[in-house]
Prior knowledge:
By secondary structure, this protein is mainly alpha-helical.
Amino acid sequence: MESYFLDWANLLLRWLHVITAIAWIGSSFYFVFLDSSLTPPEDEDLKKQGVSGELWAVHGGGFYHPVKFAVSPPRLPGHLHWFYWESYSTWLSGFALFTVSYLWSASTYLIDKSRMDWAPAEAIAAALAFLVVFWLLYDGICRLFGHKKHGDAIVGALVLVLVSVASWLACHWFAGRAAFLLVGAMMATAMSANVFFWIIPGQRTVVAQIKAGQPVDPVHGKRGKQRSVHNTYFTLPVLFAMLSGHYSFTWGHPQNWLVLIVMMVAGAAIRQFFVLRHGYKLGRNSHPLPYAVVGVALVVAVVGWLRPVSVAIDSGASGEGAANATGRNDYISVQAVLAQRCTQCHGAQVQMKNLRLDSADSVRQHAQAIYQQAVVQKLMPMNNATQMTDAERALIGRWYLAGGATE
């Protein structure tokens, strides 16, 4: 019953997380587009008001005319919309989902004893430390170098090194799928912290200065813009890290840390293409196509690198719980493997994912999924916690390919 309620919690939290993430990322993408597409105002009245840029757009049957003030508007409107709950809701729902999916069952989903044999409490503490330590180091880099000459390039290079080191550590300390998600959560935490500690406080200071009739310090806008730009480059890498959990050929690779780094670099390069594309249309920068070419080339290279190798099913294979002496691939032999390696989580007492593997009918019904998960992708047992051998996987493969689902 606990597994059933955890599945519901996982589903509802994932639903909420996706909805809020769409709202946050969508608004982030829109404002990057808007800021890059603004042109100097033509109307003299707008110039007198301190407008530094404007954009005419058409959408949904209506015309829109947003404008941007150089530092602050002449007066504050009665209603000022703030963009922050999208970020906070995304982080809160994501952390809750991470807790339910990984921290709650750390011994199953977070820990891979072949990498680090530590207690669940230790693994949980280390995972949470990733979120905090990365933010502190990233924030320190921005504070030290963000205001210097060529600061953006320096910060970008150092953050790339920081993310690479964190990816290597995560993939060597935690189960592969958990490591990828943890790196994504780590970067997403920094994104939300940028909003919480820098962007929103800076905006509140500006609003307070305007209300008090004081000169507005432009540094707050510059800092907020810098952190907002960092967030937009984090977005595609974070999305890849989050989504890759469904594809074991990425995090299950022996060099999974390198797979993660290369794909995140590809995502950042592709994002750079879209950021600069708006400025290119207005003649502000050269054509950003090389960034897209680099990003796509990296993705294609990884696709080729991770291409699957045909699974060789040795008809003579034998081993613990494997085929019988005659090599006949019947359900009795497979059942022995499933009973030893799988029914702890998929049996009468516990039915994770509502799946039982102690029933012949259920095994045959889900034979294709068992073959894909245990033989082709080697995804199950989770982190191979029950030590299923290659011979046992070969047995399942021979049984399935011989028509086990229809026996």
